[in-house]
Amino acid sequence: MLDQTLAAFDVVTTPTVIEELEETAEYDDRHGTAATTVLRRTDALTVQDADGAPFETSRVDIGEASCVAAARDVDAAFLVTDDYRALPELQGLVDAEVAVSPIVLRALVKRDAISSESAETAFEAIAAGRDWLDAPIYRRFKASASGLDPGGEADNA
Fold it and tell me: 47 near 73, Cβ under 8 Å?
């Protein structure tokens, strides 16, 4: 899904997130493998030095905080996070629409970059691997408009 995401969207991240990915890539597990895969594709995304003082709160970590600053700097339409607990706070920090990461799958379906079935399979694998089953992020995504139906919540994506 990474190739389709990078082809469909202008992806912006920060040096802080790249550093987090480099640290994660050192692990010999699926997270390390995923981080390595993203690091191999940094040529296809923008690494934005973010203006503003770094901050952290009880819900927003330094990586997300750097993305808040970058979203402001580039006037991003979306800020995507997988931290459901940080969602309300992030919404108050940027003008961009803040969305949980599964929305990307829905947007890829809407853009005909992947099938609904592929997105559903990917979401279930991600949810199981991230311990999202029965978590609020999982329930919200499954209960939203039509799940992975392209006519659902991702209409603005």
Answer: no
